[in-house]
Each structure stands twice: as C-alpha cells, then as structure tokens.
C-alpha cells in the first residue's frame, strides 16, 4: 500500500468489482478513454485478477482510498521497463471531485513510480477539450509535449489529444 496523511493507494480486489463496472461502463467517463468497450462482470474479474503485477501485465491499477471510502482509481499503463516510462490515467468519482484528491494521488503515484519503479518519466494523453484534466496534470508537474492530431474517434468525430510528460 502507498500512503500519505489522508490517502491510500491499494491494489484492486474482488470487492471493488461493482464500483469498477460502474465506472468503466459509464458513458460520461468513457468519453475520456481510448476504449469504448463495455465491460462484463467476467471481463472485469479477469482484469482484477491480472492487474496486480506491473512487471507481467505492463499495467497496475490502484484504488484510491480516503478514510474508509474508495474515491477513485489510478493506473500506470504501457509500462516500459527498458525505456523506464509508463502512462498515467486517473479517475475520481464524481462526488469526490474538486477536493484536491486527484493532485494528491498523482503526487503519491509520482513518488512510487520514480522511487520504487525507478522510472525516468510518466506521461498522459488527454483530449484537448478536457481542460480540467490538463489543468490537473499541469499542477502535478506534467508539461505539454505536443499534440496528437485526430487521435481519438469520438461520437463528435476525431479529436486531438495532448501529450503531457513528467520527468524524475
């Protein structure tokens, strides 16, 4: 477990299944994802069982906990042990947004990634229309590295994505 004064990041377990299904299948949340898949209970259970080891699956999902409440999750994905980098994705449940949890989580995750995993960089890809996420990652020390044109196929057509990086 990765901890600060008021947050814990812990591995996913089966008790998180319903919460994850609600988040992953929520169209409002999915519009910011690179995947438009619908996740069944079976698929999500397989994910929970396999999402624990970044060295095997190149991904690690951690649940964000404040006090006894699960308030969101954060992912390291596309882990690259040779180039020492990983992508970052974060989701804070709607009722816990705008309370600095996301920034605190990113700070905790950066410490873990740089100190424990010995990564050189973290990166994220954010739709250019998602101003709140761009602002969040900027405040957390990520810098704009460029634009990927027509990167995501959305219901409104293809959208550009900003790449942001944070170095150790």
Walkthrough of the structure:
The protein has 168 residues and is of the alpha+beta class. Helices cover 30% and strands 38% of the residues. It is built from six helices and eight strands; from the N terminus they run ββααααβββαβαββ. The chain has helices spanning 17-24, 27-30, 41-50, 54-57, 101-116, 131-139; strands at residues 2-3, 8-11, 60-66, 69-80, 85-92, 121-127, 143-154, 157-167. Helix 1 (17-24) packs across helix 3 (41-50). The longest helix is centred in the middle third of the chain and has 16 residues, at 101-116.
Topology readout:
Blueprint lengths: L1 E2 L4 E4 L5 H8 L2 H4 L10 H10 L3 H4 L2 E7 L2 E12 L4 E8 L8 H16 L4 E7 L3 H9 L3 E12 L2 E11 L1
Parallel strand pairs: 5-6
Antiparallel strand pairs: 1-2, 2-3, 3-4, 4-5, 6-8, 7-8
Helix pairs in contact: 1-3
Any idea what the radius of gyration is? Answer: 15 Å
| Strand portion | 35-45%
Order of helices and strands: EEHHHHEEEHEHEE
Strand order in the largest sheet: 1-2-3-4-5-6-8-7
Helix content: 25-40%
Task: Please summarize the sheet with the most strands.
Answer: 8 strands, mixed
Class inferred from helices and paired strands: alpha+beta
* Poorly predicted sequence stretches spanning 5 or more consecutive residues: none
């Amino acid at each position: 477990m990765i901890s600060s004064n008021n947050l814990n990041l812990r591995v996913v377990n089966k008790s998180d299944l319903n919460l994850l299904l609600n988040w992953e299948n929520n169209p409002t949340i999915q519009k910011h994802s690179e995947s438009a898949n619908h996740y069944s209970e079976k698929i999500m259970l397989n994910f929970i069982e396999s999402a624990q080891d970044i060295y095997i699956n190149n991904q690690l999902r951690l649940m964000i906990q404040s006090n006894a409440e699960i308030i969101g999750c954060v992912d390291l994905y596309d882990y690259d042990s040779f180039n020492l980098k990983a992508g970052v994705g974060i989701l804070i449940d709607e009722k816990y947004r705008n309370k600095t949890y996301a920034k605190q989580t990113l700070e905790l995750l950066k410490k873990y990634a740089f100190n424990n995993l010995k990564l050189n960089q973290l990166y994220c890809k954010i739709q250019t229309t998602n101003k709140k996420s761009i602002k969040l990652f900027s405040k957390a020390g990520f810098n704009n590295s460029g634009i990927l044109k027509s990167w995501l196929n959305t219901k409104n057509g293809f959208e550009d994505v900003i790449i942001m990086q944070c170095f150790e």
